[in-house]
Amino acid sequence: MLQQLTIKNYALIEALEMKPSPSLNVITGETGAGKSIMLGAIGLLMGNRADTKVLWNEKEKCVSEATFDISQYNLKELFEAENLDFENQTILRREISPAGKSRAFINDTPVTLDVLKKISGLLMDVHSQHETLQLGSHAYQLTLIDTFAGNEQQRNTYFAAWRVYNEAKRNLTTLIKQASSLRQEEDYISFQLDELVKANLQNGEQEQLESDVKLQDHAEDIKRRLNLILDSVLRADIAGRPSLIEARNNIAGIASLSAKYEAIRQRLDSLILELDDIMSEVENEEETIEFDPARAEFIKDRLSTFYKLQKKHNVNSLAALIAIQDKLQLQANQTENLEGALKEAEAVYKQKEEALKMAAQELSSSRSKVFPALAKEIVALLKEVGIPSASVQIESLPIDFMESGADQLEILFSANKGIPVKPMSQVASGGEFSRLMFCIKFIMAQKTAMPTLILDEIDTGVSGEIAIKLGTLMKTMAKSHQLISISHLPQIAAKADAHYFVYKETTGKKTTSKIKLMDKDERVEEIAKMIGGDKPSKIALAGARELLQK
């Protein structure tokens, strides 16, 4: 609900403040006095464009500010999503500097025009006789029908089913793409994997073979040198070991005479034992080492295989080749397991699709059930506001699953007898269309909380009893929703809970628009002028009093 509107330095408005009633507010005044200028300033809060031409004083900034009570609008999550402080009393402000710079604020936090437009559109609904785009929108018509049907439970059930259906669809699509990609590479992966598997790669084998090939290449030299070692230590006439034995025996003969000699004997014993162990290993090596042409050829072929595979896969170790083999094996396993995963994903997708179809049918049914009643109620209201021959039909066409359901709804309208109904987007705008829009919003107001509704001379072309009925509908609607109506009809002005008068005042070289809340006597005078002109007669004054009494 709009609690306060403040406009400064805009067009003909130097400074204007308005604290509307929570019910029906009517604004009247002479043509050109500034009623439409007020709407322009409100338009700034709706995110409309503006430039320095709107400045009343070109040296000062223009400010349009509105304070709202938003405690009933459930907007806390939206405010949090936009990183805005949520307050039950929220202030929207728009400023235009003399340099043409525009700034927007919500609760003193700077925001973009898109954010301002998003928030203000939930707080104010400006409706004029030129408003055709919104009513012609399928989304708006769908909102109307759902509001009338009160099918929130069916919509929530459908939306939950639509969400999990889309998740299953995305999962299936992802698996299909993966399968397609893997299948394209399947032969290549299989060939590379088979090549590595056949190579029978073993960690550490390459290092061992590279050592073995050196032994094979130098086998004769190794055997010759090992025999020389054996000869010099064991086999020669003057060999090393017998000399050590003789030395050990000599020291043993005097070991009992001194601890030092005994220590030397022990060390010679250890030396002989170590030498025997070394010679045993040399003998084993000498007996083992033998040049084997077949073994040498095998080693060279095996290493050649390793080197070719490493070059092919651009690595430099057997461990890296084994890692590539493991990766290829994992990809091959994925390809093998993919068919099972695909079948499972397809089953889940079909299950969620069936659940979505059922939810869509229930939602569509909840909507189609109210088509006759809604059309009948719109026609009845149109008759009350002076369109007695109106016809309304509601059609539904099936479409692919959307977030809002599987229906494309279309409200068809004709204002005149014998004229076929047409989609609202094709109906010419004007007084009749404006009244149609009002009737639809009247119906919505009975079902749900609505933003402050601002009606801009939608009573054009209406008079007499029809004007009284239109005013009565506004009065009824205003019992639960705030309305601000700019009107030129005395019958509607008389219904106001708060009657504001816009007028022009000229001081010096400047003309300004001003607004004032009228008291009872001022209302009688103003309504009488609306009936009988600037100098109302006693009859006009009496008529004004009668309208106010009604």
What are the salient characteristics of this protein?
6-stranded mixed beta sheet; 550 residues; alpha/beta; 18 helices; 6-stranded antiparallel beta sheet
Written description of the protein model:
This protein has 550 residues and is α/β, with parallel strands linked by helices. Among the domains are: 1-131 and 452-518, P-loop containing nucleotide triphosphate hydrolases (Rossmann fold), CATH 3.40.50.300; 183-333, no CATH class; 521-550, no CATH class. It contains 18 helices and 15 strands. The protein has helices at 35-45, 76-81, 113-123, 133-136, 138-149, 152-198, 205-217, 219-235, 240-252, 259-288, 293-312, 318-368, 371-384, 431-445, 464-477, 490-493, 520-532, 538-549; strands at residues 2-10, 13-18, 24-29, 62-69, 89-96, 102-106, 109-111, 124-128, 391-402, 405-414, 422-423, 452-456, 483-486, 498-507, 510-517. The strands form 3 sheets. The protein has a 6-stranded antiparallel beta sheet with strand order 2-1-4-5-6-7, covered by helices on one side. A 6-stranded mixed beta sheet has the order 8-12-13-3-14-15, sandwiched between helices. A 3-stranded antiparallel beta sheet has the order 9-10-11. A hairpin with a 5-residue loop joins β5 (89-96) and β6. The longest helix is centred in the middle third of the chain and has 51 residues, at 318-368. The protein is elongated and about 160 Å long.
